[in-house]
């Protein structure tokens, strides 16, 4: 969780898999504000050449903000690709020169109007390693105090505060269907129940 926003190197049980592949060509076909699309032609160990589509995305953070009484602060946000509103943990990208912890504090201010006096790293994970480079850092936030911040101009956010057990029930019932939020809530559960 240092200043670098680099994600860990990929790991496999058989490192020969990593070294027997040859990148023949890599081409960026789209560069956007949030993602870029890269086409990689790769020679497999048997000599066949395949094309892999890779969505490049900055490292990101998600935060589970919990008040002193055990209430979790979630957000409802319109997600255009899903065509509706999802119940989620606050999240966002790690900016250039920003550590994941700094990004987490900024996102808390922007999305729920608080900062955390205690920010506990839970873990990091790839969101969809089959097609995107996005690596997410998950945090538990405690000691929430008011902070100034404005959501991004394209965000439409409503706060939803729930007792911890109700948030867990909604997650198990499929009412929280966002994978980053599910992972972060599940990881935070042991800390919250202490």
Tell me briefly what this model is.
Helix content is 21%, strand content 43%. It is an alpha+beta fold and 194 residues long.
Report what the structure shows.
The protein has 194 residues and is of the alpha+beta class. The protein has four helices and ten strands. The protein has helices spanning 15-19, 100-112, 164-172, 179-192; strands at 22-31, 35-43, 49-57, 60-65, 71-79, 84-88, 91-93, 114-126, 135-146, 157-163. The strands form three sheets. Strands 7-4-9-8 form a four-stranded mixed beta sheet. The protein has a three-stranded antiparallel beta sheet with strand order 1-2-3, with no helix packed on it. A three-stranded antiparallel beta sheet has the order 6-5-10. It is elongated, with a radius of gyration of 19 Å.
Question: Which short descriptors sum up this protein?
Answer:
single chain, 194 residues, alpha+beta, 4-stranded mixed β-sheet, 3-stranded antiparallel β-sheet, 21% helix
Query: What is the N-to-C succession of helices and strands?
Result: HEEEEEEEHEEEHH
Multimeric state: single chain
**Rg, Cα atoms, Å:** 19 Å
Range of strand content: 35-45%
Strand order of the largest sheet: 7-4-9-8
Number of helices: 4
Helix coverage percent of residues?
A: 10-25%
Shape: elongated
């Amino acid at each position: 969780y240092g200043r670098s926003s680099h994600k860990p190197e990929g790991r496999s049980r058989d490192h020969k898999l990593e070294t027997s592949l040859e990148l023949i060509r890599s081409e960026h076909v789209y560069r956007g504000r949030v993602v870029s699309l890269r086409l990689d032609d790769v020679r497999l160990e048997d000599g066949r050449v395949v094309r892999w589509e890779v969505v490049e995305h900055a490292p990101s953070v998600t935060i589970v903000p919990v008040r002193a009484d055990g209430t979790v602060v979630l957000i409802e946000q319109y997600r255009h690709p899903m065509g509706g509103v999802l119940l989620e943990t606050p999240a966002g990208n790690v900016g250039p020169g920003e550590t994941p912890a700094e990004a987490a504090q900024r996102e808390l201010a922007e999305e729920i109007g608080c900062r955390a006096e205690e920010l506990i790293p839970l873990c990091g994970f790839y969101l969809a390693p089959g097609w995107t480079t996005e690596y997410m850092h998950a945090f538990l936030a405690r000691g929430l105090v008011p902070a100034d911040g404005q959501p991004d101009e394209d965000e439409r956010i409503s706060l939803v505060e729930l007792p911890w057990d109700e948030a867990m029930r909604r997650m198990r019932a499929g009412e929280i269907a966002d994978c980053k939020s599910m992972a972060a809530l599940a990881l935070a559960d042991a800390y919250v129940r202490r």
